[in-house]
Amino acid sequence: MTEPILQTTNLTKEFGKLVAVDDVNLEVERGEFRSLIGPNGAGKTTTFNLLTGALRPTSGTVTFNGEDVTGLPPHERVRKGLGRSFQITNIFSGLTVRENVRLSAQAAQHGDFRPTEEFLKRANTFEEVNAHTQRVLDRSGLSGRGEEVADNLAYGDKRRLEIAIVLATDPDMVLLDEPTAGMSAEETRATMDLIHEVLSDRTLLLIEHDIDLVMRVSDRITVLHRGAILAEGTPDAVSEDPEVRRAYFGGVEA
Amino acid sequence: MSVATAVAEQVLNGLVVGMVYVLLAAGLSIIFGVMDVINFAHGELFALGAYFAFAIAGPLGGAGFWVALVVAPLLVGVIGMAIERLTVKRLYGRDPLYHILLTFGLVLIINDLITSVWGKSAQPFPIPAALDQPIALFGFTYSMYNYAIIVIGSVLALGTWLLLSRTQFGMIIRAGSEDREMVRNLGINIDRYYTLTFGFGAALAGVAGIVLGAFQNVSPTMGNAVIIPAFVIVVLGGLGSFRGAVAGGLFVGLVQTLARTYTPFLEGLIVFLLMIVVLVVKPTGLFGTSIGAGEHHDGALLHGAGGGVLSSETRAKLGYAAVGVLVLVPFLAELTGVTYSVTLLEDILIWALFALSLDLVLGYAGLVSLGHTLFYGVGAYASVLTLIHISPSVFVALVVAVVVCAAIAWFVGYLSIRVSGVFFAMITLGFAELFYNAVFKFDFTGGSDGLFGVDVFYGLAGLGIDPGEFEIPLGLFVFDGGIVQYYFLLAMVVGSYLLARRLIRAPFGSVLQAIRESEDRASFIGYDVTAYKRRAFVVSGGLAGLAGGLFAANNGYVAPSFLHWINSGEVIVMTVLGGMGTLYGPMIGAGVFVAAEDILSSYIDQWQLVIGVLFVLFVIFVPRGLVSLPRTVADHPTFGSVVRDQTSVTETEVEQHD
Questions:
Q1: pTM assigned to the model
Q2: Where is the ABC transporter domain (chain A) (predicted)?
């Protein structure tokens, strides 16, 4: 077995007396589509924030690509290849679609800019960044809308742009925070298709509470309950697990 | 008098001043805690309390003081409620910056009203005879009035605490400060409580004004004198924390009084040093919690939008035309004999540069620097000191000014940019006040006089132009040193604008724009948001230093007033007036502001009042600034139709692409 791309060791987060995440040991294999599910209050969002770097754990470590990233702030984790999408569409709404993607592409490369370039050269004249931007626009089906202001896009296209921004950071792994929250069945299907279409060659970790969706799309599922891992396995195995049924379905036969 | 008695007396004096601060800070803190409003007009409400009491007590004689002590705060409370209803209320949900701006306008209005009714000079406000005598307690004699202040302050503070913690009124406003929509959904008319809270805070300020007025005297500058210490107290104690306001008020009163007696050098400095240390160590203040107050920014900053009507080409042409006119002005001035206009334009250009520098942090990095005059003032001092001690060359002086200010900006930014929002504003204000008070203390800065009579040489190593001797007659027109100065200034300002624009269009600036749109997003595509903000602050500090240096070099002097917080307020006003986040907007704002001030002040005495009123209306109705007016007009249902027909949709897109 190869080394996991993402691994947490005894990851714990306490808020005062509340233990939101309790001794979680998570291993995500390279290339898999993993889902992290659990009822409200199970600690999904806290775990997510610990993985992105938005929160620091009380104890335990997060290892990404074999490197301890526990102490790194979010932007450095992103640069190491750990991308994320937002639950509520979070795009640069006053800028054009192309500029949104360009900024993201620039982030992946701007460490190589000389100071004179960083401060004085026109931002839209960096050939590699522009080429990468165009590739991402093409891949995410937005190539025709590059000059539109992001805020004027239809809802579905905004989600598309959100994914394109993540893709442009060239992540090895993408953390998806309830990408279909508040969507109709139709929109949910479209969004999941989009994720498959655009991000299928990356490792994915989906945080979700919609169990039916998770069953459909995941390679493996980790079930969180009261901050701890309750079960882990393929969708079939997890749905058969009596512990999971009791915790998640409240004992009611699904 | 023994040492112990002397110390005891100083401690009591400290408590007296402290009680006044407690009353002021409590009102300020409650208003902030409940409504997220940073009320700069609080000091003026304090002064109003004193003047109302002065007006009431005078005719009534003996018992007048006691009547005034009850009636005047009520009047101030009513005025506070009116202010909330008519102005503050319209800005809920916007970034706290807009309340700073609004209440800054109110400061100008109220202060001008006070001076026009009661005059500019300080007036005595006698202590009631019954209290105007010493009393012996615990073995030493002390003024009875001072004891009375301590008692009045304690009773009111205790009463306020009971009101907040034990009554339904207190419960509702505390709940409202946590989640105002939730309280509204419970069927409670929270707006009414906001109005009452504002009025209550104003009334407390009124009481503070009365007791201090009778302790010292009443003067139109009394509000100005206490507002900054009051802010320091609120920040020290923890924004929105009542306990913090009480503890902070007493503490600052004691420290100030003791410092005055025992370490005179630190008087005026120690409070700001304390504030900076506390904020660096514990950004939430001594009693503040991160939850509840200060950190729930829900409103966005509104940026200027020139788009829609004027295309970028049109704007570029307007820009060239403006520079063209500015180049021709000295000739026109000489031909028409209106040489005064050149002086006014020099002023405008310097403020335009100052506003441009602020726009980089305010409009692009979203940082409300409340102490930006720190860089303007330090730039001026640095260049004058360089001219006196190192080299008469203006080039050397300006380079020193820029480098020194950039270094200070780096240091201040390093300490404060990890702390967000309101705290950043307060730390920058604290540093500016620290420097303002410091320049009075040293001989090398010229103390309260500043430094005068500096000669400037426009060149290096003896090669260049001495404006005092330079003169080339050109027919009707004499090209003299003053004109050299003017063109040099114009070149520096236009050059700075072009540099700033270039920065904004480079990767660096594109990231700032991303941060302005969504800080979270920028961070999660891999940008170090804090580092970018710090860099923007350094560039901004350098440019503000250049503006200050240019002013000092042009006029040959520098004075402590360069560092006064009013400058910081004015430059924010200019930036928002023009339309922040556009670079050229704030420069236009500076032009309009300085010109309006100049014209109004030469025709009417109450020009501050007029500017204040205009500004309040502006903040409420045109928050995106002058540059947004074409679009606002175009979007207007009736006026707009004509304009709209002439603009195509594609132009809006071109705008965004710019």
A1: 0.86
A2: 6-251
